[in-house]
Amino acid sequence: MSAPFTTAAPLADVPHGFFGRRGGVSTGELASLNCGLGSGDDPARIAENRHRVAGAVLPGAALAGVYQVHGRRCVTVDAATDLAARPEADALATRTPGILLGILTADCVPILFADREAGVVGAAHAGWKGAIAGVGEATLDAMESLGARREAIAAAIGPCIGRASYEVDEAFVGRFLADDPANEHFFAAGRPGHAMFDIAAYVAARLAAAGVGTVAIGGQDTCAEEADYFSYRRACLRGENGYGRQLSVIGVKQPT
């Protein structure tokens, strides 16, 4: 069996998908397509869910992932990842056919990249710490090391927490304004002492400024769209014991 997913027009003809919480075998608060290895879910269910993701996008492909730490490191890969020995990083890049790069999120921003001409793809997990540290730019650098051209790269931002759901305090806003006063554009007024942060727009603007040829934003709000997506913030607000993670993947087709 496979699972439903969404795609991005700029990545047409490149095997990829942004998956949500539907189409898997997990139960309870983690129902149903939980792919998070650190979620406390039954490992056998996680394995089946990840198998369904891979089968839906690139049947027979090996899935490569990283141990995400909210940083900016990007690794280049040419083989599937041993789940017990995943490198600490928040992005991956490859030019090897038959590999799916996978990024887990539960409100953070999943970014998928492709240079069709060079046959190079990338995937990044951008929480606010990774985004401001430059995980997107690090992914572009890694892709260029594999032969991609920045102006030929298309990037798609998948389901993440939306501005209407992402309340932050003044100290948070201050970090971004200290980095660049122009970042004020990504914050809207909230209740006293708080603001609403548009992290998708921030990530997109960083990628455009870095020279990416095409950047698209999916527009889903993981926190608000409970039936379709897992959300760390929603779980915290409700005092739930745990939360699932959704998987976003991209790969290079095997030559025919």
**What's the domain count?**
1
CATH architecture: 4-Layer Sandwich
Strands, count: 14
Give the overall form: globular
Give the strand content. 15-25%
CATH topology: CNF1/YfiH-like putative cysteine hydrolases
Helix content: 10-25%
Query: What average pLDDT do the residues reach?
Result: 95
Low-confidence stretches: none
Classified in CATH, the superfamily is CNF1/YfiH-like putative cysteine hydrolases
What structural class is derived from the secondary structure elements?
alpha+beta
Give the spatial strand order of the biggest sheet: 4-5-8-7-9-13
Q: Please state the CA-atom Rg, rounded to the nearest Å.
A: 17 Å
Question: Can you walk me through this structure?
Answer:
The chain is an alpha+beta fold and 256 residues long. The chain has one domain: CNF1/YfiH-like putative cysteine hydrolases (4-Layer Sandwich), CATH 3.60.140.10. The protein contains 6 helices and 14 strands. A 6-stranded mixed β-sheet has the order 4-5-8-7-9-13. The longest helix has 15 residues. The model has no long low-confidence stretch (mean pLDDT 95).
